[in-house]
Amino acid sequence: MAHNFLSELTGSFAMPAAENPTVAMIESAYRHHKLDWRYINCEVTPENLGAAVAGARAMNWAGFNCSLPHKVAVIQHLDGLGASAEIMGAVNCVVRRGTSYIGENTDGKGFLASLQEVTDPSGRSVVMFGAGGAARAVSVELALAGAKSVTVVNRDRARGQAVVDLLNQRTSTRAELVEWKGTYRVPEGVDIVINATSIGLFPDVDARLDLDAATLRPNMVVADIIPNPPRTRLVRDAEQRGCKVIDGLGMLVNQGVIGVKYWTGLDVDPTVMRKTIADLFGA
Ligand code: NDP
């Protein structure tokens, strides 16, 4: 398949390439499938974001990812938003559709794709730790996929309440806040437990959620969004308790697969991408 180089460029406004696992992961998929596409990394400062998006348009990029601190600020430079990105108010993936650049959020979609490999969240009760950007993305996608309820467990009350209000106001999922003070016990009847905090992220690999692991029951699905290391304390605790477990690598890989599909229209092999990233993380 031959493509004009400039019309088939995707990009990422993020950190330097040597430190960026997404670049390695997506380029490995392009290479594996012999796709004449490139995914490059551009470090863009906040004051240059508008100029960078204009540059992407001028070069007819198929799209790009953007990471913090650009996920909200980029919206003003785009022509529209996908349904979930509009609810979240955050964009991590921009897609050229015709002559328009549309903001999507593939973080939550990547998580959902991982979850759907083991269970359908429709009608399920969810406990989610965390209320930051990733938690917002994950919970909005769960709500749009028909989750019955989401209990947001978060230390900071205001941040937790903002996610609860968003879910209650913009989706049909019932959301409630539990302020995270002391050891949390997962109530009976919960189907899915998610760590959407940054607890356990390298280098704090031994950090544990303040959670009574004895309340994780074998019928529960336990998901951690921490990709590095993938085998977090929560993942290991939940495995020991006999739960079905999902690690954060799946979310990272799937958001890449979904992004490539948006840009190229092609389905790429997630196992190639997972291997690249697992090697990089030494997992
Ligand atoms: P934010 O900084 O926006 O939010 C962090 C959240 O973690 C907050 O809710 C914060 O609580 C909570 N938190 C952090 N430390 C503690 C602690 N010691 N005890 C209790 N709560 C804590 O981060 P993001 O939402 O952007 O990202 C969160 C994680 O998600 C990151 O580690 C990132 O690696 C991961 N991620 C994974 C992806 C993947 O593809 N697998 C994609 C995107 C993100 P509080 O509000 O009380 O401060």
CATH C-level name of the largest domain:
Alpha Beta
CATH topology of the largest domain: Rossmann fold
Structural class, by secondary structure, is alpha/beta
| Percent range for β-strand residues | 15-25%
Distance between the termini: 33 Å
Spatial extent as radius of gyration: 19 Å
Which parts are unreliable, with pLDDT below 50 for 5 consecutive residues or more? 1-7
CATH superfamily of the largest domain: NAD(P)-binding Rossmann-like Domain
- Which hetero compounds are present in the coordinates? NADPH dihydro-nicotinamide-adenine-dinucleotide phosphate
- Overall number of domains: 2
The CATH architecture category of the largest domain equals: 3-Layer(aba) Sandwich
What is the N-to-C succession of helices and strands? EHEHEEHEEHEHEHEEEHEHH
User: What is the number of helical segments per DSSP (H or I, 4+ residues)?
Assistant: 9
Query: Which word captures the global form?
Result: globular
Q: Mean of the pLDDT scores?
A: 92
Please list the strands of the largest sheet in the order they lie side by side. 2-1-3-5-6-4
Determine the fraction of residues in helical runs and give it as a percent range. Answer: 25-40%
Total E-strand runs: 12
